[in-house]
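## tool: complex_structure
## caller: assistant
## args:
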Amino acid sequence: MEFFIDENDRVDGIEKVTGKAKYFAEYQLPGLTYGVLVTSTITKGKIIAIDTKAAKNAPGVLDVLSHLNKPSAAGYEQAGGSPMKIFYTDQVFFNGQPIAIVVADTFERATYAASLVKVSYEKTAFNTDFEASIKDAAVKKLQGAPPYVRGIADAYKTAEVKVEQTYKMPVETHNPMELHGIIADWGVNDKVTVYAKTQGVKSTQNTIANVFKIPAENIQVNSQFVGGGFGMALRTWPLEIAAIMASKQLKKPVKLIITRDQMFTMVGNRPAAYQKIGLGATKDGKITGITHTAFGQSATYENFTEGVVNMSKFMYDSENVNTNYYVIPLDMGVPIWMRGPGEATGAFALESAIDEMAFALDMDPLDFRAKNDPEQDPSQKRPFSSKYIKEAYKLGAAKIGWNNRKNKPGSIVEGSWQIGYGVSVGVFNAGRGRASVKGILKADGTLVLQSATSDIGPGTGTGMTLIASKLMNIPVYKIVFELGDSSLPPAPSQGGSATLSTVGSAVNDVCVALKSTIAELAANSNMDATSNFVDVLKKNNLPMIEKTIQSSQNNPEAKNYSMYSFSIHFVQVKVHQLTGVVKVNKIVSVGDSGKIVSPKTARSQMVGGAVGGIGMALTEEAILDNRYGRYVNNNFADYHVPVNADVPDIDVIFIDKPDPIVNPMGAKGMGEIALIGFAGAVANAVFNATGKRIRSLPITPDKVLEA
Amino acid sequence: MAEIDKNQSGDTRRDFLKKSSLFTALSLTPLTVLKAADQKVDERFAELFEKIPLNLKVNNKAYTLKVEPRVTLLDLLREQLHLTGTKKGCDHGQCGACTVHVDGVRVNSCLSLAAMNEGKSITTIEGLAKGDELHPMQAAFIKHDGFQCGYCTPGQIMSAVACVREGHANSKDEIREYMSGNICRCGAYPNIVDAIHEVKEGGKVI
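## result:
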């Protein structure tokens, strides 16, 4: 089927709209069996006994595995250490922990049999109460990052004007639409094939190799299509190891798909956060001190930290900055980076406080930001590789109609609704790693590119194809980019907005190498240097040429610069005066992330980040019942991700100017900045609409009414 | 499953048969079945009795099947007929990823037991294109980039086609409302709305 409306369409679009795209759970293996997990119903303690008699006797059941009868995983044999070693412990660390797997010949039979497993426990006291733990001196706090001081600590306290506030965020869950799981097939001679939901096929391969102490080459990881990740598929979770153990034991392929409620407990979350910001400024609006103290939720059995306080160190020009970041180990599943990760958490607090200060100074919040925009990175004392944030302020302000905004809150009323405008900035490191790409240039005019990278949705294949198409002057439909296969040349996991920069650089380098080989061949066969590669290959009787290139991790110049992508989110909200309902009316998101390689998919990514931001700002909150250590809203009916009716039309503007340092394309990542800062823009707009400052996400009607 | 430590699921068919034989007419429960229950092979006998014959059409192809009554239409499509275009997102009718047409009406196939679909005609995403020619809604989703990861897409498209046919696509706001049963976590909603709006305004009968 050849169907291209234009070259910017997704290269895998047809597969996705026809149902032909195969996600991990959709591979048909002969003799496939089904695993279903049994999970702990206590929050902390010890498993005393597991009665599997009834389950084993149920029709179609092949086995029930737990810590009592698992097969050996050599990497788990030594005592102690992190991460949690599934089936190598009788300890329960959190509610909903997988403690056994039932395998049967059909999904229904495995599900029924899992309900027959009876577990008895010895319970011990537990703590899942994040907010209470912050104030409780008896609860252990760990340093999440070294304390940072520039100039004088807590300088804001002596400033002419000061803002000192606390900002709260609940647990959020990634909840991609595709349920997590794996198909594991442990074959003869310890050859293992898995169909995984992963953001990194090489990372999955290495984890399995380490757990079972078998050579990485023995393990084939397939993950061509991934139904969303947002960070939760950046590691191999214990449940995946459980399925592999079951396959090893039974010598049959085992498919395990977890349930939506299990997506809340065993595949990570964005940690709850409690942040204090102290901000000091002169009366004419110059920031003199920033103090950012953050607490994040972590787990007792594994630790998790992220970049919550990073942005406060360099986004605004202040002589005095100090930050502290602590994590609190709780009896809950361990968190993992969720889109925008800690930076999105930090940006909500900092950008709310910036808005509060602008209001205290009676300044337009855009003017206040512009006035404190640093010429260079004040934390590293070096220039930014590129930064067009003031231009972005102007473009976005014009598009949203910022001049309609009144600095006095509650000034605009339409019927029962109050209207307000808000703005916030997002920033994320423009990282670039090392990757290898193989290019196969064929005499039939086609180019095949291969790399063990992933596409969880941003359009990796599309972006890479466009980079190659431009460099090689080959139409996109004659280029195939293969990914999601651990046997391909290695690439890092898809995370931290680095794939386009990292793998794109390797695509660039391999294309340059192929072109130079073609030029040599042309010269050797007395052809014109500009000859088409098809003619050159034919003249030389070559069906194809191949090159594999490992890209360098950086431009050598990079160490002299700070490299970041920036976003500026503008929103107009309306707040209902009687019900407190907040609706986002208009969104303008401006991306300052270098050259845009793939305009259509890049725009979609910005749109998607804004939608995620609406969820973070207004609806998303995983609520824990601290008496039992369980989530009470662990489903899509009660945990509210944004739906179509929550989302207005979204305008996306790109600065689209190449960064001269980061990589040959001049393109910086943008998956994170699409979301970072968005929630702050909404909170600031709600204040502008109503005069009510909501410092606790999500901004639900009850909070608006009570404020 | 969440209550395994204290649930009553040990109350099996075996217990039920015994109780029913004690408290109701013995003649209703043949001796062989009771014996089987005692020998714990009742589940295996039951398996033979408990499959239900099912005739249905999927994408215009007729199937004659025997299914357990607890099998959902979604799991029948995915696990038995290997039509994996229809996706499982929540299994609770809360996300719309499993949307198919049953006799032309959009339905969450995870909330429909396969056995309830006797004689019905199911259309899945695999049955929407005419050979190599994409359905206009599929083409519009590509044009407007109405997806990212693609996992909710088959459900979105099946729902979108029904939304237009129902006459619920007369404005962008109406589309937003009538497409709110289909969650897209990548956040492609504005693009999805644009795609549906264009197909509707195109005026073709779809």
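## assistant note: The domain at 378-429+562-706 of chain A is CATH 3.30.365.10 (Aldehyde Oxidoreductase; domain 4). The mean pLDDT of chain A is 97. Handing back to user.
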